[in-house]
Amino acid sequence: MGSIKLENIAKSFGDTEVIPPLNLSIDEGEFVVFVGPSGCGKSTLLRLIAGLENATAGKVIIDGEDVTNVTPSKRGLAMVFQSYALYPHMTVRKNIAFPLRMSGMEPAEIDKRVEAASTSLNLNDYLERKPGQLSGGQRQRVAIGRAIVRDPSAFLFDEPLSNLDAALRVGMRLEISEMHKQMGTTMIYVTHDQVEAMTMADKIVVLQSGVIEQVGSPLELYKSPCNVFVAGFIGSPKMNLLSGEVAAKYNAHTIGIRPEHLSISDTAGEWEGVVGVSEHLGSDTFVHVHFDGSNEPLTVRAGGDLELEYGTKVFLTPDMKKLHRFDESGRAIR
Amino acid sequence: MADRKLSRLMQAPAVILLLTWMLVPLCITLFFSFIRYVLASSIRPEWTSPSIENWRGFGNYLFVWNNDGFWLAVYNSIFIVTSIIVLTVVLGLAIAILVNRTFPGQGIVRVMLISPFFVMPAVNAVLWINMILDPVLGLQGIAVGGLNEVVATLQDAPLVGWFFSLWPELIPISFRASQTSAIAVILMVTWQWTPFAVLIFMTSLQSEDQQQKEAAILDGAGKWSMFRFLTLPHLARPVSIVVMIQAIFHLSLYAEIEIVSRGNGNKNLPYLIGEMATNNIGAASATGIFAVILANVLAVFLLRMISKSLME
Predict the structure, then answer these.
(1) Final residue of a structural domain among A230, A257, A282
(2) For chain A, which terminal residue's Cβ has fewer other Cβ atoms within 10 angstroms, N or C?
(3) Cβ count within 10 A of residue A292
């Protein structure tokens, strides 16, 4: 239960094509993250799977069954919204019970399931409160609880953590990952935050203007991005991208090198530059080096103890084995 | 501290003005309700000036309490106000939900919907009682006459004539009669105030959270469940606002009552007060105090009912 397949699915709003025909298959039990800049169509894609939007063309297949024209509630999917979308005048208990009540389940069975869900989410103390009396993290849990009780074949998350503060976000991220490991249910997670994508996903789908740029495991995308967009989008701090004369030396239109694959030296090296701002994180230092061959300063990841004066002259050497080369159209040269 | 004193001082005129505005009339009414005070009396000329020497205690209240007209007016006030409120809320909800969708020409439709609210109450009453409800010259009379004529011609028709000859002749209803004039008032005020309810409900419908609705769709809620469990609770507050404001306004209906039947068999409290105030100011004041009490009781009762039934 829980494999999802998109076949030539397309969506247009009027004359504007948001998603050109697209194919994607999601295996049972996978944690798939749709990631991309805002407006790239990742939420629309999720809504197409949920059935909240009608596809202009193509098919949605869940567990081998064509559900393109099936109503959202009959698709067996549960969704967690960015704004939580809790029912404000109902208590937490009633919120969680709502989908069961709508399906006409026995009250005794409903109570049992709500009890089980609230125990697993640590919500027992809040069952009689209303959403307005809960904190952001608790509301998020209630929204997840409302999804869990339905025992869906897949969970859909639409940027569920973007309304939480940074500390809480890290915690909830772990909880959702933990939940996935325990239940083994398929999950599709939409986010614009590549850190969330890297840390949670089994499989990342990188989208740009409705087109899938690359699909793969987090490390696959990190180690071998198939084009300049993915190279620049995945990884933090961003990969350094250089073009022009510098790149031509390496027989490429654009070259990319991750901050950790640049070694810094004050005596000799490939590229000569001037130290700009250094960011000390304790474990690492990110040094921004101004270099004539690049409009933007290069980011170098160095050891936490490195201290360089602003304006010092340094030399950088890229690790040739880890250098990414791209042609004029932005595709990787392998 | 000096700053605070100064700001209090600066506020004082406004506060005093408002308090005076409210308290003085109330106090004068209370005073009048406890004394004998008439506008003209040849037998007891001393009662024609308000004075503490004409103290009557609760006499005025007892006089009003034991007056049949008073209880009819109380009953009529409640009947008219609650009928109008129920009708406007139900109609207002239905129309607001209907108009809330997007359709061609919705701007014009919305403006037209609001327009009855701009008609003066007296004009509204004149229009309705003469042009629409009049049993002879109004739309009602024309419609009933037309129907009777159609039935009469059908009675002469072959084959089906016998069936139509069983039909009685329709008689138009006179809305100026004492049994029906309250209904005429309810009809015209409902027509005028439904737009107000529509306006309030429509703005509130537009603020409904769309993601909540989508969540409900995924949770398997149908159209009716979404209305019952999401839209109605969302509208609980606007509904109570509409009820509250209308209760205040319609307890003091006067123009419509005057124009429809000159109060014949259809007096409400304000009309009764008006009639009494032509001479007996003491009794009119006592009735006024009763009206204040009734308005408060009614408001509290209505609000309790709404918050209970809509908020679950």
Answers:
(1) A230
(2) C
(3) 11
Clarify whether residues A15 and A67 are in a common domain: yes
C-alpha distance from A268 to closest chain B C-alpha (Å): 59
> Measured between alpha carbons, how far is B206 from B209 in angstroms, rounded to an integer?
8
Could you state, in order of their start, the residue ranges of all structural domains in chain B?
69-121+181-310
CB contact under 8 A, A102 and B225: yes
Asked whether residue A119 is assigned to any structural domain, the reply reads yes
- Determine, for residues B312 and A79 on separate chains, whether the beta-carbon distance falls below 8 Å: no
Instruction: Indicate if the pLDDT at residue B288 is higher than 80.
Output: yes
- Report yes or no: B192 and B246 within 8 Å, Cβ to Cβ: no
Say if residue A200 is in the same domain as residue A270. Answer: no
Question: B220, A102: Cβ pair inside 8 Å?
Answer: yes
Are A306 and A285 contacting, i.e. CB atoms less than 8 angstroms apart?
yes
The length of chain A, given as a count of residues:
334
Residue type, B21: W
- Cβ of A81 within 8 Å of Cβ of B220? The answer is no
Q: Could A102 and B212 be called an inter-chain contact, meaning their C-beta atoms sit closer than 8 Å?
A: no
Task: Look at chain A and report how many structural domains it folds into.
Answer: 2
> What distance in Å separates the CA atoms of residue A287 and residue B145, rounded to the nearest whole number?
95
**Domain of A300?**
244-326
**What is the tens place of the pLDDT at every residue in A22-38?**
899 999 999 999 999 98
CATH number assigned to the domain comprising residue A216? 3.40.50.300
Nearest CA in chain A to B219: A99
Mean pLDDT across A136-151? 91
Question: Does B272 have pLDDT greater than 70?
Answer: yes
With contact defined as beta carbons under 8 Å apart, do B85 and B301 qualify?
no
Overall average pLDDT of the A64-74 stretch: 90
Residue A43 shares a structural domain with residue A165: yes
pTM of the predicted protein model? 0.78
Say if residue A265 is exposed, middle or buried (CB neighbours under 10 Å; 0-12, 13-18, 19+): exposed
User: Fold for domain B69-121+181-310?
Assistant: MetI-like fold (1.10.3720)
Query: How many of the other CB atoms lie within 10 Å of CB of B166?
Result: 7
**What's the one-letter identity of residue A102?**
M
User: What is the rounded average pLDDT of the residues B306-311?
Assistant: 72
Residue A253 has pLDDT above 80, yes or no: yes
Among A53, A81, A146, the residue to mutate for chain B (most B Cβ within 10 A):
A81
Helix (H, G, I), strand (E, B) or coil at A66: strand
Q: How many CB atoms lie within 10 A of CB A243?
A: 18
Q: How far is A98 from chain B (nearest CA, A)?
A: 7
Classify residue A143 as left (phi > 0), alpha (psi -120 to 50) or beta.
Answer: alpha
Q: What is the ipTM of this complex?
A: 0.83
Same domain, A64 and A174: yes
The reported pLDDT for the residue numbered B267 is 87
Tell me which residue in A81, A98, A102 faces B211 most closely, judged by beta carbons. A81
* Pairwise CA distance, residues A101 & B219, whole Å: 9
